[in-house]
Batch of 3 targets.
Target 1
Amino acid sequence: MQENYVDKNFSSLVSDLQKLIQQPSVSAKNLGLEECAGLIVRMMKKSGIHAETLRIKKGIPPAIYGEVKSKQNPDKTLLFYNHYDVQPEEPLELWDDKPFSGKIKGNKIYGRGSADDKGELITRIKAVEAFLKTTGDVPCNIKFFIEGEEEIGSVHIEDYLQKYEKKLSCNAVIWEFGYVDEKNRPIISLGMKGLLYVELSKKESIRDAHSSLAVIVENPAWRLVEALKTLRNMDGKILIKDWYKEVDKFTKEDLLIINSEPFDENSFKKEYGIRKFVGNKKGMAIKKALVGEPTCNIAGFTSGYDGPGAKTVLPSKALVKIDFRLIPKMDPQKQLLRLKKHLKENGFGDIEVKLIHGEAAARTKISDPFVKTVKKAADESFGTSILSVSSAGTGPMFSFVKFLKSPCIAIGSTYVFSRIHSPNEFARIDLLRKTTKCMCKIIRNFASQ
């Protein structure tokens, strides 16, 4: 019944998503966040969902809370976590159309946030609407928590979860996104990697100098390069002492699932235009790395002149941004101390280390009943689905487990090559339809679990 409603009213899902895309909401620039939050509240209310904004203090982007109480099953609650902020749209010159156009071309809706995360959000809202419009009730209590800072590290997520812990209490959480592979199979992720994001900087002199002085004045860019070389080897292994100390090995059950996960090496290489993987990884080694190995990635390096042509300058300062992906039992604060100790012991104590963001990793156990509930719905909606021990990406899942003490599972409509965080981001319309129906099935299955 609900799936028929989704089909008959699908045009409203598409038009609502276009409206969401056309409302910029870039957290990195503090652009359009209040306006987008207000738009979502109005959309949710129109769908029959009680909706309100939540706040912790002035100047912090509001979160959105939604709720529908079940008459038939008031003791069971499913929470949808999503976010309404998006990545910056730059570089503008690489977009085929305006970044916030919401333009439809064939089976795709283009625009920043079309997939990450406004497309995902609209499938959740419309699934709940389908129940309310067809039965006037929902099979279990439904809650929404939609934040506006996910793209800048969910910096106030724990403040929200702590303040509104009782309001957000639930039995299980559907996470904000989920990939669909090139064979149209949804990837059900049972976890998220953690993150330690830092800036390493070195200031050598009071101003830039003529590069002829490089024979006597230290170049801070070289200083950082030398320090960076001590952090990891060519195969990607992190060389910081005790970096892996608390990490558990994969269980036999984990390895069985990892081994069954599909990964088309040639397709991936073609999509990104690469010839080989880090450390020449192949087969199972690639899969294990994606779901369960930490990383040390240079996200940006700034120093000296980067304009057109030549300028013979010796820069006075240099800065590098590094993100370390963490896995379960890696504590961001402890890893930060290990990084600082490593630099000092290797003769780089003069390099300043600034913490930008840190969050721990989390995983839901494969044996949790909620896993079967979601898997059954995904198989029915898509024909088949793939279980994954963990996403290769990061989100504040650990905070939800910490405060709400509920299993979290990621499943959604984001095509694996939908260019999220890149120019020409898009959502596939067919996957939005399938995912909305899948959300209906998850709600039903969970209510009877």
Target 2
Amino acid sequence: MKLDLKLTGCRALTMDPARPAAHTIGIWQGRIAGLDEQVEDLPATETVDLGTAVVLPGFIDAHTHLAWNGRRTVDLSGLSTVAQILDRLAGAPGEGWIEASGYDRRIMDSPLTAADLDQVSGGRPVYVADISGHACVVNSPVLDRLPGISSDGWLTENEQLAARSLRLPYSLDEIAAELHTSARQVLSEGVTMCAEAGIGAGLIAGSPLEAAAYQRAQLPIRVQLMVSAHVLHEVAADPADGVPRAIDLGLHTGFGDDMLSLGAMKLWTDGGMIARTAALTEPYAGTANTGQLAESEEFMRAAIVDGHHAGWQLAIHAIGDRAIDFTLDAVAEAQRQRPRADARHRIEHCGLVRPDQLDRIAALGLIPVVQPTFLWSYGDDYSEIMGEERAPWMYRGRSFLDRGIIVAGSSDRPVADGAPLRAIEFMVRRRSSGGRAVGPDEAITVEEAIRAYTLGSAHACRKEHVLGSLTPGKLADLVVLGDDPRTSESIAEIPVLATVVGGSFSFQRSS
């Protein structure tokens, strides 16, 4: 046998307990052919000496937004005054809509309004996306097309969706270009697979034909698509099938191949903490605001039950503890009506989890898909709005693992920093970018954090049989690092030297 590629001289952390470490990796036809003595004597078309670099399984981002992240808009990141924003927007090139992103209402000298935007828009419609993804600011030409909505320009949740729908759809060529931009970025961070969290409809979708853009793009990374529950429709299936609603042809989780596949069905039950719309049982500190559920309980419960009946794995967005209560009750009801072993339903974000909810999550076999860099980026703010008692409950780690709950790592890119090494460092150190300790008792070990971004995310995406560890027979996806996260004092700063997808170098850092 002649290998396609042999990697030598490395320090590999395989994440496979049967063989935790290796120094030689053999690759053939896109898969790992063997390790160490299994391949040392085999010839190879190409041999690469990695010079003691550290090799891990490729990182898997179990919840991200590739198209949104790659979208070309006016960047308002870091701007904190209305004057700065208007100066940036003035004279925006092109015709038609002016779109901007990176707006952070929390840091503004005064909130941006429609009247402000009217000063520089020249009559063009303006859509300024809040960093949360759950709010926006629009100008008067947009508000005039939204009958029944009274606002100074600030819109959240469904009102935001109504405004955004006026701009949609993006063309398939636009979306494909956005995807390639993001693919290049994630490869540079060691990510080899992404789960796209919501296509077809809803807050993040760009086109009802969105899946076609992924087929057209032929990306150099693996992608799993989460289909929005809003595209479920009634089907005239045989009553014995027990499927009242589905998507066309009965497609559900698992369809596709190793490069592009259908993953979970995405549902939203509440908003977000940045926009103060995550649904809480007790108000945000110092306010009477308890956030809001995304839709009526009847609508959301039906989507969860029907999606479960139709064979979908469910990815249920629930950030606040009130939304998590609803999610636990609805999933329990779906399983009562039609028990499904190993359904692997997921709670996306699982942001604020009370102590009494932990055992229910474990009992239902739910997978928290967390975004640790939320607390690195916004931990100071989140701690203030949750208050002293609740702050330690946010984006848990240790409490999940101690109950046998599998944790999946993700980014929600572009809402927060997407680099897995940054997230891994936070999971270990539990300190915000401002140096604040956020739930220090939830800290986990480096290897446990790496597992969340490899085997944990592979399990959440139902791909653990082919991804997540450097095991013979699995797909040859791996990341080459300049230092060992287990001993580094600054995990987030470790350079990604190369990223390999299916045995091919998809990214190599220039020296």
Target 3
Amino acid sequence: MDLAAGPGAGAARPRYLFVTGQLAKGALERTLGEMRAAFDWRVEALRIKVAALLTTDYLRATLPRPDCDAVYLPGLCQADVAALMSIFGVEFKKGPKDLRDLAAFFGGEAEAYDPQGKHALTILAEINDLHRLDDEAILARAERYRRSGADVIDLGCSPESPIADLGRIVGMLRGRGFRVSVDTFDEREALSGDEAGSLNAENLDLAGRLRSAVPVVIPDHGQGLASLLRNVEEARRRGVQRLIVDPVIDPIHFGFAASLRRFCEAREALPEAEMLMGVGNLTELTEADSAGVNAVLLGVMSELSVTHALTTEVAPWALGCVRELDCGRRMMHHAHRRGSLPKGFDDRLVTTRDARLSRPTEAELRAMQRSLGDRNFRIETDGESIFVFNAERFVKRSNIRDIFPQLGVEDDASHAFYLGRELMKADLARRLGKKYIQGEPLHWGYLTYAEEEAEQARRRRAPARARAKGAP
């Protein structure tokens, strides 16, 4: 099969074949033609209307053997790309679920970004109020933090309720494979745990007495950079070979701006020092979704080469902080290494809105309706109104309560439930500025979850899949 070249063809350019159905053929060709892509392309529109219904068996029977470097299938199709690669001897991939995302998809693919790739930040996740928890609760919290991406479990001690057997708790966690740190100023706790602790002028006598701990050196209370540098110098004089410097980030309206300056000045004064930032003073003490707060602080840490971040998840709006730091540290490392802005390749910290938003126009939807021949309802939104249509009717409203009575499904409970759920999702997408794709979960960044497929959707798709499998 001769692969016709797209705009700007060249011998060294990769050659891609895009497989789709009859309904999307024109739109796909227009989108590819407008992309100015760095590859040559051709569209193969098979004799099936809805591309999402493409199956492995149908492609095996109907797709001409491709002569190209890779074949791209619609993102919603259920075909097995590994099986197709074995059958045809060429790489198969799935594109985006929405055709309007194709340009962004190839831009992101070109970045070769690995969301589980390298980073330069160690996350310490603090278990607060340790004295209130039994061993089972401590281990459960530690396991949750580890699953979220924490590298070190930090044991938060209370000055009013010292823990006599802290060493036992440290040993228990280490026996389960955890790295452990201890957040305390208490000498007995620090010596018992001997894993970490904070040093200032009040307890610098601990410097050099800890056998395995890497102490965190902070400024004296209420004082600034000069006291921090003095404490660092004294700790080193007392024989501390390795230490971590924490200039201390302060809450908003309680020295936040000045503490940012202190971090910058500390980095200038100690260019080689390991540094820590306790981000909980912002995420826990600012009543705002923590993802954006963490993203900004991760940017500061990236610029200043801060290698340790201490966080916790106590306030309801801060639940997920460990996972957010894990996502964001990889994003910032990638951007820093490339010398680019932290955008365009990892949208997991965009939760309430969507990173890329594309929506159909009413004219496009009416044109789609004219090509339909079945009674299955399609649901779409352009951000202002919600549209529900099939071959027989086209309903446009901004209030889903006005839409439902016009659909005539009152006597089919499972169908009514399916449409009601989808209409609610479409309404959420319209109100929040998110993309809606029928039958797919809304995208909530790292919080996105898989939905159980409604029985009605399965029953409606099964006959169509059967027809597609036997299509000529």
